[in-house]
Amino acid sequence: HGGDDQALYAYGREDLDRWEGELGRELNNGMFGENLTTSGVDGTACLIGERWSVGSDGLLLEVTSPRTPCQTFVKWLEIPGWIKT
Fold first, then answer.
1. CA 77/CA 30 separation, integer angstroms
2. What is the pLDDT of residue 79?
3. In the chain, where are the structural domains located?
4. Which letter, b or e, does each residue of 42-75 get, where b requires 16 or more Cβ atoms within 10 Å of its Cβ?
């Protein structure tokens, strides 16, 4: 989605858990559009160019840009006004 360097969206399970409390509903992995749900990784402290080693097979991911929520994101959540347009 969005080009070669934007094909992966990581989001923390801890952040989903926090939003569950805010929204008062269960949020499954992938609910915010992420295709990689992390645990124990502080996604708010990521830096462009930072590299993450994932799994035991040598997969290396590089942070290339922040994600800007879009209308697709709003449709998944079904909460009007979730993002500013």
1. 11
2. 74
3. 4-77
4. eeeeeeeeeeeeeeeeeeeeeeeeebeeeeebee
**Burial zone of 39 (CB within 10 Å; 0-12 exposed, 13-18 middle, 19+ buried):** exposed
Q: Element (H or E) spanning 15, and its range?
A: helix 13-23
With a cut of 70, say whether residue 4 has pLDDT above it: no
pLDDT above 90: percentage of residues in the chain: 28
13: enclosing H helix or E strand? helix 13-23
Task: Convert the pLDDT of each residue in 45-66 to its tens digit.
Answer: 889 999 989 889 988 888 888 8
Q: For residue 15, what are its two tokens?
A: 């952040």
